[in-house]
Amino acid sequence: MPLSWEQFYAENPPPSDLDQKRHYVQDFCQKHLNNGSRIVLITSGGTTVPLEHHTVRFVDNFSAGTRGSASAEYFLEIGYAVIFLYRLKSIEPYLRHVMGSRFLDMLEIDKSADNTSISVKPSEVHNILPVLTKYNAAKESQKFLQVGFTTLSDYLWLLKTICETLPSFGARAMIYLAAAVSDFYVPATQMPTHKMQSQDGAPTIQLDLVPKILQPLVSSWVPNAYVISFKLETDENILIKKARGALLKYKHKIVLANLMDTRRSRVVAVTPEDETEIILTEEQKQKGLELEKFIVDYLSEEHSKFIMESTAQ
Ligand code: 9Z3
């Protein structure tokens, strides 16, 4: 039997800087509460599951945060205030376009100025300029807040804390759960304090089930918000059934169902009434379009309808 969510929080201590992060989030929300802005909490990247308290080893997952970071840019573009809860060192909005060693290839040293000045190569300006322009606009609008996590337990603490600051937005708040969250973990009480030693032989690692956090999130933390979760599978045959199962169980608004191998080009938006395929064609991809643009367009329209219905009641 998995622990209840209350037991999970009781047994796994919060991150040491939780209060500081709570204050940042509260200040951010306060700023956007009165200006009528919509707000979206985006979760992005994978959680780690430590195997030791002084963690040397941990269980990780594949997610690089591409979905979450791209979606954040598109939500910002259409005016949402964005809280980006992301795995530290995973892909970040805007930076994702200039990451890696290519970044250094974009720069040159200005020899005429005594090697003290660096500029962007003229041939790269057309790549950097649109990104920098959008980044500066997001910064100026003060509509973008990043909050980092690494472990599963930090993620769950921050998710709860951020959700608890959002109810005053009512239907204007959207929760977009794109992070790849581990279903399994090693309870704090069963973890060795120090690095496991090979001289002690092969360890037996028992993973427990993580309680389903969507349940309190939807029913108590943000009961009036527009909540969207993702369902990831590797077997097409069970994808929609599992997505429907999650909708029925947690009673949120949409499950975006995706398969690991085709996640960049297809998701199915599953609602209690409907299934809508959102597709990126090869041709659109060649033009530099991204699936997340279409996902965000679809969701913002659905969110508008939801806000109208909520205010009409
Ligand atoms: C997703 O399904 C995301 O679309 C991906 C994005 C993690 C596949 P990338 O970071 O990948 O762009 O490479 N996220 C949710 C995954 C998840 O943990 N879902 C749980 C489940 O399927 C429910 S909350 O049971």
Automatic annotation (TrEMBL):
Keywords: Ligase. InterPro entries: CoaB-like_sf, DNA/pantothenate-metab_flavo_C. One of its GO terms (biological process) is coenzyme A biosynthetic process. Residues 172-287 form the DNA/pantothenate metabolism flavoprotein C-terminal domain. GO terms for molecular function: ligase activity. The keyword Ligase applies. Belongs to the PPC synthetase family. This is Phosphopantothenate--cysteine ligase.
